[in-house]
Write a structure and sequence with these properties.
This protein is mainly α. The protein has nine helices and seven strands.
Length: about 280
């Protein structure tokens, strides 16, 4: 019996073609057959090839003719380039529309008005509306970016040294983040509605500690706390301290403010969604 030498296998006068598949057994001249461990260099079992992309086989020329290989590889490259270009266009469109919605939110932030049942220094605006729309259309990160843009643009005109803008951003993010996340997990009106209610509730609840520990202590630097509480007592004489004022007035006000944005979003989103997503 002779072993593998070079490109030929010689055994009892038989010569194997070098282009033929390599043998995996040899006749030892005995009654049984003895299996040998062979060198796998140049020998690629089909069982291993199925773990690699077909395009790799095609380029190597193992399974397909060269003409078909070139065509398959060209189609693969064309599809890959097309996917990259589509993703790039979507990202550019997403960034551009997020900026547009941020500009709309900035304008709405300047359009604010007083509510009769609230102290005069508390204003109502609908600047969270574009942020909620962005959160549904492009994801919660875009919604938070809209909140950031509107407060950043409003910063040069602030009368609170940026404290009001910081608190507004935190509350807006607490609103659009859960709404956008839940909508991504549960697509449809139900997911949007539940997510919006959770976001509005989160914004309202978070307004209590933010106002109590950040916003109103800053206001107290310029206006005595007694004067601030006096504005609340003028509406409800039962108010005795700041915590009660925030709990009875600010928390429900913030929740209703969020619900107004939710109601308007549900009224207009279906009409503007194809435009935002480039389907028109």
């Amino acid at each position: 019996m002779k072993f593998l030498t070079g490109s030929k296998v010689c055994e009892r006068g038989h010569t194997y073609n070098s282009k033929a598949p390599l043998p995996n057994r040899c006749d030892s001249g005995t009654d049984g057959k003895v299996r040998m461990k062979e060198d796998v260099t140049g020998h690629r079992p089909a069982a291993l090839l199925r773990h690699f992309p077909r395009t790799v086989f095609c380029v190597s020329g193992f399974f397909m003719p060269k003409t078909n290989c070139r065509r398959s590889f060209a189609n693969f490259l064309k599809g890959l380039i097309c996917k990259m270009e589509t993703t790039k266009k979507l990202n550019v469109r997403k960034l551009a529309l997020t900026a547009v919605l941020g500009a709309v939110a900035t304008v709405l932030m300047f359009i604010s008005f007083s509510v009769p049942i609230m102290p005069s220094f508390i204003k109502l605006d609908l600047s969270e509306l574009p942020a909620l729309i962005a959160s549904f259309a492009f994801g919660p990160v875009s919604g938070m970016a809209v909140c950031f843009i509107k407060n950043l643009v409003n910063l040069p005109f602030t009368t609170t040294s940026g404290v009001g803008e910081l608190c507004n951003f935190l509350l807006g993010a607490a609103f659009v983040l859960p709404a956008g996340l839940l909508y991504q997990m549960v697509k449809g009106r139900r997911g949007a509605l539940v997510g919006s209610f959770i976001g509005a509730a989160a914004m309202a609840l978070l307004s209590l500690p933010i106002n109590y520990f950040v916003t109103y202590p800053f206001y107290a630097v310029f206006m005595p706390m007694e004067a601030i509480l006096g504005m609340y007592k003028a509406i409800n004489p039962a108010v005795e301290n700041l915590f009660q004022a925030l709990l009875w007035f600010n928390v429900p006000f913030t929740f209703v403010k969020g619900l107004l944005s939710v109601a308007i979003t549900f009224a207009v989103y279906k009409k503007i969604s194809p435009i935002l997503k480039g389907q028109r």
